[in-house]
Amino acid sequence: MVPFAGHPTIGTAWVLATEKLLPTNSLRFNLEEGIGPVEVTLEGDPERPSFLWMRHGEARLGPELTNRAEFAGALGLAEADLLTGAPIRTGSTGNTFLYIPLRDRDAVDRARLDVPALLAAQGEGPNLGVFVFAPDPDPRAGAERDAAAGEPREYRVYSRMFAPHTSGVPEDPATGSASGPLGAYLVERGLVAPAATVAIVSEQGTRMGRQSFIRIRIGMTGGRIGLILVGGSVVPVIEGRLRVD
């Protein structure tokens, strides 16, 4: 059982709202999941929200995995395709992933996961979904302009997630549970400029033809991460009813 995931959280919250199964005018409530209560906040009409946020718990980032050439090879890439100065490491806010930073969008698009090579590089331990990403090349560009406009700059990161060996999903077009630790990684490594609120959008699924945009908000207090929000909108594609006799 998956202890925490974005699609079920956001989708369930949207259905509860649109089916009027929440108290009147509820904009914030908790869903009980495998990791405990997950807070959800609605934006717009409480009965048909335009956007939904889920609050992640504290991000836990693992130590650097130093066999970089092996991990690059497991993606069909060269070590030079990895982002210089950015460690390969695990991260979790309830569901653990392996994060491999790459130097640019082209490297992300060229990645092809070789599962046996990945498991050999990873060694002992649980099998993890592999999240590859390339952040903005200049994290401070435009920050002053956006601050003058009174809004936080929205940094961009280009992402993909592979999990054929963990969940049978060759590639996921949008991974909400991986996006919270991603935001924490970007902040911790200085790949986005620090601010009271750091706004990030992760573009995922583009290479596989199912483009998605996941919003991430990191709240900073005293130079430390105090809040992680991940959100998106919902597009219903099918409806059904279950009758219990």
Description:
It is a single chain. The protein is of the alpha+beta class and 245 residues long. The chain has helices at residues 6-18, 68-74, 105-110, 115-122, 143-148, 176-188; strands at residues 28-33, 36-45, 48-56, 60-61, 89-92, 97-101, 129-135, 154-163, 169-172, 197-204, 212-221, 224-232. It has two domains: 6-56, Diaminopimelate Epimerase, Chain A, domain 1, CATH 3.10.310; 60-225, Diaminopimelate Epimerase, Chain A, domain 1 (Roll). Strands 1, 2, 3, 4, 5, 6, 7, 8, 9, 10, 11 and 12 form a twelve-stranded mixed sheet that branches. Helix 2 (68-74) runs antiparallel to helix 4. The longest helix is centred in the N-terminal third of the chain and has 13 residues, at 6-18. The chain is globular, with a radius of gyration of 18 Å. The two termini are 27 Å apart. The mean pLDDT is 92.
From the N-terminal CA to the C-terminal CA, the straight-line distance is: 27 Å
The secondary structure category is alpha+beta
Q: Figure out the total of helices.
A: 6
Shape: globular
Instruction: Provide the CATH top-level class of the largest domain.
Output: Alpha Beta
- Amount of beta strand: 25-35%
Percent range of helical residues = 10-25%
Strands, count: 12
Overall residue-averaged pLDDT value: 92
Q: Give the topology string: H per helix, E per strand.
A: HEEEEHEEHHEHEEHEEE
Poorly predicted spans: none
- Major beta sheet summary: 12 strands, mixed
**Radius of gyration, whole Å:** 18 Å
Write down the domain tally: 2
CATH-level-4 superfamily name of the largest domain: Diaminopimelate Epimerase, Chain A, domain 1
